[in-house]
């Protein structure tokens, strides 16, 4: 009996001086906190083990990517992608790029990439099929015409009521023609921006609608005889946001949002915007 009491007393002392007798749930709770963005970064579940696969379209245009080479880190979106990857715990050598057509990126179903970065505007319709990160850029739309066009001196969207405008299929630029500018003529739809630019140069359309930074590059480098008539927001008072696109419900978005928050708070995102998109603030604004 004395020996049994001594044994019980020894166990009690052990419980008081260690965690050996703590309830299992309490012990595991201290060491394994509830899943969060931090956990997603600590043990990211990527499509390829230990590699972050990032998608974008081909061709990839300036000023978002330089020389049609997303992997060189040049251009706003290439630089943002690598900055996000670094904050997520992936160095440059652990990032790989893959091609995903713009229109296919926001279709429902499994994805062969971890996220897509390709000037994809966040909207409710697309968010039914995919998951977006927080926004990394606020984009305005713009209208480009040739310098000798009768629309080159327009000061309002109403001035384009009878114009024939074009844009890439599946883009918010195309939506802006029908929903915001509301031209009487059906917009001309193109598979990519290159085809839209050719149509403008050949006089088949009066103007093209693209995001503002792209417009600066087109008018400065690709079509010197063109001009930016002005910029506008697709909806009055709204700010169109570009977001990283993930497969629907992918928890890795928590890690990406954490990375974007850090890049915003430290000023890195603003510095990259200034470096690559600094001209985008200077275009005149078109009234409704």
Model description:
With 288 residues, the chain is α/β, with parallel strands linked by helices. Helix content is 36%, strand content 19%. It has 11 helices and 10 strands. The strands form 3 sheets. It has a 5-stranded mixed sheet. It has a 3-stranded parallel sheet with strand order 2-1-3, covered by helices on one side. It has a two-stranded antiparallel ribbon with strand order 4-10. Strand 1, helix 4 and strand 2 form a beta-alpha-beta unit. The longest helix has 16 residues, at 2-17. The protein is elongated. The termini are far apart.
Task: Indicate the CATH architecture of the largest domain.
Answer: 3-Layer(aba) Sandwich
Helix run count:
11
Low-confidence stretches: 1-38
Strand order of the largest sheet: 7-6-8-5-9
Average pLDDT figure = 85
Quick structural overview:
With 288 residues, the chain is of the alpha/beta class. It has helices spanning 2-17, 24-31, 37-42, 76-88, 102-105, 124-127, 172-181, 193-201, 212-222, 252-265, 268-277; strands spanning 52-56, 95-99, 115-116, 130-139, 141-146, 165-168, 188-190, 207-211, 226-232, 240-247.
């Amino acid at each position: 009996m004395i020996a049994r009491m001594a044994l019980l007393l020894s166990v009690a002392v052990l419980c008081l001086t260690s965690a050996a007798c703590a309830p299992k749930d309490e012990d595991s709770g201290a060491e394994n906190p509830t899943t969060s963005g931090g956990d997603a970064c600590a043990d990211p579940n990527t499509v390829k083990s230990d590699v972050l696969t990032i998608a974008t379209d081909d061709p990839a245009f300036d000023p978002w990517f330089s020389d049609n080479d997303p992997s060189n880190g040049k251009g706003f979106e290439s630089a943002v992608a690598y900055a996000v990857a670094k904050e997520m715990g992936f160095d440059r050598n652990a990032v790989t790029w893959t091609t995903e057509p713009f229109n296919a990126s926001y279709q429902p179903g499994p994805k062969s990439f971890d996220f897509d970065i390709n000037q994809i505007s966040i909207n409710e319709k697309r968010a039914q099929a995919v998951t977006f990160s927080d926004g990394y850029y606020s984009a305005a739309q713009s209208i480009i015409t040739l310098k000798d066009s009768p629309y080159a001196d327009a000061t309002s969207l109403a001035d384009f009521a009878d114009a024939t405008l074009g844009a890439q299929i599946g883009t918010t630029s195309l939506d802006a023609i029908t929903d915001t500018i509301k031209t009487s003529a059906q917009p001309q739809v193109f598979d990519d921006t290159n085809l839209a630019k050719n149509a403008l140069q050949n006089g088949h359309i009066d103007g093209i609608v693209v995001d503002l930074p792209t417009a600066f590059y087109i008018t400065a480098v690709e079509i010197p005889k063109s001009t930016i008539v002005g910029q506008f927001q697709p909806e009055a008072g709204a700010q169109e946001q570009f977001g990283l696109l993930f497969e629907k419900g992918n928890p890795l978005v928590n890690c990406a949002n954490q990375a974007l928050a850090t890049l915003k708070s430290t000023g890195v995102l603003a510095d990259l915007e200034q470096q690559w998109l600094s001209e985008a603030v200077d275009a005149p604004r078109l009234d409704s």
